[in-house]
Amino acid sequence: MSKGKTTLPPCGLYRTGRALKGQETDIPAGILVMFHNHSNRDIPMLQLPRENTHNVWNFHEQGPGIENDDAFLAALQPLLDQGFYFLREELSTPDGKFPKNALIQLGYNRNGDPILFIAQRSNDHNSLFFAETGYRFEQLDILKKLGPEQPLWFTGAPTEQEHDQNPQSSGELLN
Hints:
- The chain is mostly beta strands.
- Helices cover 6% and strands 37% of the residues.
- The chain has two helices and 16 strands.
- It is elongated, with a radius of gyration of 17 Å.
């Protein structure tokens, strides 16, 4: 899909690489956004993080549209979806080393910095849990150490369709 002379990126999570023209205070460079290449106004739009529950951001239903700012679109930095992945290689942290294939939960802070939450086994139940604190990385290179390309699916996780739509508006994203 393209709008004007720029080919629009796919819908998904991004970190802004520059401020949105005309909204520099609200949408500066270096923040986490949900980008959609469609909306009810037939222009691309952004959704900002609303709240974080269990290391996963929910986003505001409405957000600003993007008109005539090809430089902003070109500067969007794609992020992996929030969710569960495996480490493709060993990871060293201040607390020690985590082995290749360790299960992790990927989350982000409001600046779009990746945060890795390492799976831990419960002493009381036959279950895994993820702490509310993790290891923050400013550089996006850490995302290359995660696999597969899409997060693992677990019961109760939102589907891709739910992730990209607003149920109250029958699939139309508001801006």
